From TrEMBL:
<keyword id="KW-0564">Palmitate</keyword>
<dbReference type="GO" id="GO:0007264">
    <property type="term" value="P:small GTPase-mediated signal transduction"/>
</dbReference>
<keyword id="KW-0472">Membrane</keyword>
<keyword id="KW-0547">Nucleotide-binding</keyword>
<keyword id="KW-0449">Lipoprotein</keyword>
<dbReference type="InterPro" id="IPR003578">
    <property type="entry name" value="Small_GTPase_Rho"/>
</dbReference>
<dbReference type="Pfam" id="PF00071">
    <property type="entry name" value="Ras"/>
</dbReference>
<dbReference type="InterPro" id="IPR001806">
    <property type="entry name" value="Small_GTPase"/>
</dbReference>
<dbReference type="GO" id="GO:0016020">
    <property type="term" value="C:membrane"/>
</dbReference>
<dbReference type="GO" id="GO:0005525">
    <property type="term" value="F:GTP binding"/>
</dbReference>
<comment type="similarity">
    <text>Belongs to the small GTPase superfamily. Rho family.</text>
</comment>
<keyword id="KW-0342">GTP-binding</keyword>
<dbReference type="InterPro" id="IPR027417">
    <property type="entry name" value="P-loop_NTPase"/>
</dbReference>
<dbReference type="InterPro" id="IPR005225">
    <property type="entry name" value="Small_GTP-bd"/>
</dbReference>
<dbReference type="GO" id="GO:0003924">
    <property type="term" value="F:GTPase activity"/>
</dbReference>
<protein>
    <recommendedName>
        <fullName>Small GTPase RacB</fullName>
    </recommendedName>
</protein>
Length: 189
């Protein structure tokens, strides 16, 4: 199976929202039990979506402030951003508008975005909600509203722990890129 097109997909979002976990889950079908801050080697594989085979390159970024000067170096040549926030962190949700959109639009103004709400399993976990009193929980409607505000191509909620919708995140990212190439002319052969 050979791919004729390469898609560079870069994940961004606050630290500890689950970007690396989502990538590890997608590429290995395993959920890492320990928190490992951004230790994900760039990954590339041929992926079939809707009859098209593409070579999907996944790039992980560190969300912490310490990396704000280095992070944009990974944006060059990006075809799509997966912008993640945690469904159980109001701060990460608010930073989509405050921090991430200004950064992405400064360094990659025309690259499409798939907005992703992570940790879906915790939003529905009664024991977790009882401890947190529900104050930081982001609803599906709030996520969809944010998608509209930032002009993202899609909004998906997922759980790396249960693997719910993880494949859908990256299938959607690929579809968004392929559609943009059809609409604007493919930069690839």
């Amino acid at each position: 199976m050979s791919a004729s097109k390469f898609i560079k997909c870069v994940t961004v979002g606050d630290g500890a929202v689950g970007k690396t976990c989502m990538l590890i889950c997608y590429t290995s079908n395993k959920f890492p039990t320990d928190y490992i801050p951004t230790v994900f080697d760039n990954f590339s594989a041929n992926v079939a979506v809707d009859g098209s085979i593409v070579n999907l390159g996944l790039w992980d970024t560190a969300g912490q402030e310490d990396y704000c000067r280095l992070r944009p170096l990974s944006y060059r040549g990006a075809d799509i951003f997966v912008l993640a926030f945690s469904l159980i962190s109001r701060a990460s949700y608010e930073n989509v508008l405050k921090k991430w959109m200004p950064e992405l639009r400064r360094f990659a103004p025309n690259v499409p975005i798939v907005l992703v709400g992570t940790k879906l399993d915790l939003r529905d976990d009664r024991a977790y909600l009882a401890d947190q009193m529900g104050s930081n929980i982001i609803t599906s409607a709030q996520g969809e509203e944010l998608r509209k505000q930032i002009g993202a191509a899609a909004y998906i909620e997922c759980s790396s722990k249960t693997q719910q919708n993880v494949k859908a995140v990256f299938d959607t990212a690929i579809k968004v890129v392929l559609l943009s190439w059809v609409a604007h002319g493919s930069p690839q052969p």
